[in-house]
Task: structure prediction
Amino acid sequence: MPKIDPHAIRQGDRLALSRALSAVENNEQAGQELQSFLFPFTGKAHLIGVTGASGVGKSTLVNQLAKALRQSRTEKDTPKIAIVAVDPTSPFTGGALLGDRIRMQDLAGDKGIFIRSMASRGALGGLAHKTAAFATILDGAGFDIVLIETVGAGQAEVDIAQLAHTVIVVEAPGMGDDIQAIKAGILEIADILVVNKADRPDAENTALALRAMLDMAHGGSLPVAGKHMRQNAKLPQTESHTVSDEWRPPVQLVTATKGKGVPQLVEEITHHRKYLLESGLWQVKEAHRLRRDLETLIRESLMDQWQKKVDVSKFESIMKDILDRKYAPIDAVKLLL
Result:
């Protein structure tokens, strides 16, 4: 691959940016060097996660949201938007369809929007292993907003909460048991709840169920969104008012295929960003995200070092003993280390 000019990335060269993301995804040395170069320019982009079960219309919503965000400000300060769409990888072939790009073809003509699909490559939690690194590159490249669409997430797939400043959880009517769909795992990470496909007759019932769950959460029966971060945040007083230490996730009805409700969703996103900055939670979330990135890199580095030093024959011998039930895996770890 030709040498990637980091200054070209800063100047908006899309080919250089695409090559940089490929280098990062393939864990090449060039990708690591580019992350180091771009990191001092990061910390400005608003990272917005869009998550929810498969089939709720996340890709269509992201498509409409990107267009609405581009139109939400004056022409002079129109935000540059990057979209990272994580697609599931086949456990059999290792391939991914990367079908989200098909749903976002009408964004292709806008030079202020950059779209990149990436395969999950077996990662759990709704993201890919290099999603956080992608966010760093795109932030350093000067994008104002990075929209991150997760793989169809279940109750435990909540990694996006560790990465994004604003998490949008998308639900849809007719997806089965409402209470099952909105258990605490997903409810707790939501900064904004969206009921998509609101033109369906049972959409209002889904919204009512979500609001009821939020009422329970704020009454203390369930975890409140982002509470673990708020407990450690120092919430300042502004000149005009005292910033509340509790954000209540709004429930927004949207029909993404028709664009209905999307402008109101943009308003909620803007409101949440303002809340994060005024309350000091933006810095708290950044600290959580960077700490998690550092810990992940340490684990990967230690694993790489161990694999380079391990005696393969000894490993295979111990593995055979585990299969013969001579050692428990927990005991084998002590022998290998």
